[in-house]
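Q: Give me the 3D complex with guanine.
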Amino acid sequence: MTELLIKNAVIMTMNEQDDIIEGDVRIREDRIAEIGEHLEPSAGSRVIDAGGKVMLPGFVQTHIHLCQTMFRGRADDLALIDWLRKRIWPMEAAHNEDSVYYSALLGIGELIRSGTTTILDMETVHHTDAAFQAILESGIRAFSGKVMMDHGTEVPPALQEKTDESLSESVRLLEKWHGKGNGKIRYAFCPRFVVSCTEELLVGVRDLAEQYGVKVHTHASENETEIRIVEAERGMRNVVYLDHIGLARPNLILAHSIWLNDEEKRIIKERGVKVTHCPGSNLKLASGVAQVPELLEIGVTVGIGADGAPCNNNLDMFQEMRLTAYIQKVKHGPTVMNARQVLRLATMGGAEVLGMEREIGSIEAGKLADIQLLDLEDFHVYPSYDADWYSRVVYAATRGDVDTVIIGGDIVMQNRIMRTIDKPR
Ligand code: GUN
Ligand code: FE
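A: Here is the predicted complex, encoded as C-alpha cells.
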C-alpha cells in the first residue's frame, strides 16, 4: 500500500468546525487516512516536510471551457452574444483534434499550477475524445462533456448539429469515458444554453441524464440579450422555461445565473438546482453582477468557476475568489462575503455543486486526497501566527505561491514542477 506523509503544515481543513491545525496528514492510496500531530511514517512511506507551508483542499472550479484556452487575447471587448458569434464560435469551428488536445492540456496545466484539482468542463461540438485524453493523462479530476447545440442563428456550419446526432454522440462519449482514470473522470451533458438548443434536445438531455445518473451543465441568464432571446422564442424567462420542461432538478448546474427574478430564485432553491458564479467573466463580458449573497441567503448551493480563458484571460481561482469578495462588498458593504465564506465557495461549495461533498472539498480523514500546499513565505505578517489565515489566502496569496498539488494521492506538482503535464504527446 502506498503511503504519503505530509508533516508540519498549517492545515486549513475547511471542515464544518473550521479547524485550522498545525500538524501532519497521512495519505494511503488515494485517500486521507489520518490527520494529527507527530504522526510516524510507516515502512516505505514517502515523507514531505511541509514546515512553514499552508495546506488547503484543492480548489473545485465548477465552470470551465478547456477548449477555449487558446482563444485568450483574441476575444475582447464584446458582450456575450456578439462575442460568441463573432469570435468564439468561429474559433471553436476551426478546432481540430490536436488543437482541442493541446488547448485542454494548456488549460489543465494552468489550473493545476493555481491549485485547482477538480473541474466541471464544457468542450466544443467535436473532438471531445481528445479533451478527455488530455484530462486522463493530466490526472486532474474532471466532469466534462461535448457541448450540444442544435439550434440558433449565425452558428458556423461546422458547429451545427442534428438533435439525434448530438444526443447519440454524447451517449457514445459518456459510455467511453465516464468512470475512467480510476473514477476521476465523469461525464456531464452540456447543452450550451437555451439559445442554442431545441426543446427536443433539452428534453432528451433531461431523460438521458436521469437514466445514466449524471450532471447537466449549461449556461443560464448570463446576459440581458440572452434572456430576451429566450423570452421571445419560448415565451418564458430562462429558468422558468428550464423548469417548465422538467430540466430544473438537483443534477442541473447553471453557470452565471445573473439575471434572475424572485420566481427564478425560488425555482432554483426549491428544485435543488446548483449555481456557478463566474466573477471575472461577468466583469470582462460586462454581463452583470450576480446575486451571490442573495442566493446563499435562501440556501442555494453556489460554486465558483473561471469560465473559459478568453472570458477573463485567467483560469486562476485566487483571482476569482478575490473578485467574488470585492464585487459584493462594493454592492452590499464590507461585511458581505468574508474571506472564510469565499474560500468555502472555492472548495466545499464546488464539491456540493458536483454532489461530491462526501469525497472532496475539505481535508478530513476518509476523503479523497486532493490537496495543495502554499508557500506564503514572501508574504510577511508579524507575528505571522496571529494573522487571519483566510484573509491571507483570499486577499494576498497568488498562484505563484502554490508549491505542491496532490490529486487522489498522486503528486502532480511538487516544488512548483509539474510532473504529468510537461510531456509531449
Ligand atoms: N453562453 C453560451 N456559450 C457560452 C460560452 O462559451 N461562454 C460563456 N461565458 N457563456 C456562454
Ligand atoms: Fe461559460
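A quick observation: The chain has two domains: 3-58+361-418, 59-353.
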